[in-house]
């Protein structure tokens, strides 16, 4: 198996409070995001914090998707890491849409290619 | 809870094949790394691939640690993401030592501070 991967780091702001605090919604969104990108889901683990916030991961055959949400700040910290032929932006965009993110800051890091490279691309989208 | 976090991306090369292929060893190493850095472990999910390779995550109250190992390439793709007062380099160094990584390329990304920033620091260590 090739080591080469693509890792999108997305900082989502101005998301809906209620969605960021709904663990079942987030878990379903992440599984759907993985499947829509063509990934094979292997492990799913989410945790709800008190009084608010959700952390979780979907381990896929092609790497992982993670979230840490801070509903009180409208902020979600997202990582979508894929290897093989998958495009991580499919899942990253699906998640940002699902959370109604008003501001989306994303970078893409190549992984598994030797030295750590500086981000290949950087994008800011303000809804 | 503050959104600010520190995310270490570590590319480890020249690791031991047997360690990279031992799911129990990796899972224990990751839980120990989290605890040594002062984190509180919330969820643990690891998966062993055939014929080789391990992916997994430890969700901590302060974010997460992940690994994808490629034993046949001596490569482990590591993320250690912490918020609060924790120092992610404690866990990252513990993991690199445990896997006997010969080459360690790491960068640290600030998270949850508004726009995505370019890496704050970058380090290459060759054993």
From TrEMBL, chains A, B:
GO biological process: one example: spermidine biosynthetic process
Site (Cleavage (non-hydrolytic)): 62-63
Pathway linked to the protein: Amine and polyamine biosynthesis; S-adenosylmethioninamine biosynthesis; S-adenosylmethioninamine from S-adenosyl-L-methionine: step 1/1
Superkingdom of this protein's organism: Bacteria
Subunit-structure text: Heterotetramer of two alpha and two beta chains arranged as a dimer of alpha/beta heterodimers.
Pfam short name (any one): AdoMet_dc
EC number: 4.1.1.50
Gene (name only): speH
Listed name of the protein: S-adenosylmethionine decarboxylase proenzyme
């Amino acid at each position: 198996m090739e080591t080469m991967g693509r890792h999108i780091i997305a900082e989502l702001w101005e998301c809906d409070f209620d969605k960021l605090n709904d663990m079942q919604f987030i878990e379903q969104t992440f599984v759907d995001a993985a499947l829509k990108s063509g990934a094979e889901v292997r492990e799913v683990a989410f945790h709800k914090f008190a009084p608010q916030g959700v952390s979780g991961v979907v381990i896929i055959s092609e790497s992982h998707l993670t979230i840490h949400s801070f509903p009180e700040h409208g902020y979600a910290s997202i990582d979508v890491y894929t290897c093989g032929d998958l495009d991580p932006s499919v899942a990253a965009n699906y998640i940002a849409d699902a959370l109604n993110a008003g501001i989306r800051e994303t970078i893409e890091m190549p992984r598994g290619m030797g030295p750590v490279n500086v981000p290949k691309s950087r994008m800011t989208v303000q809804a």
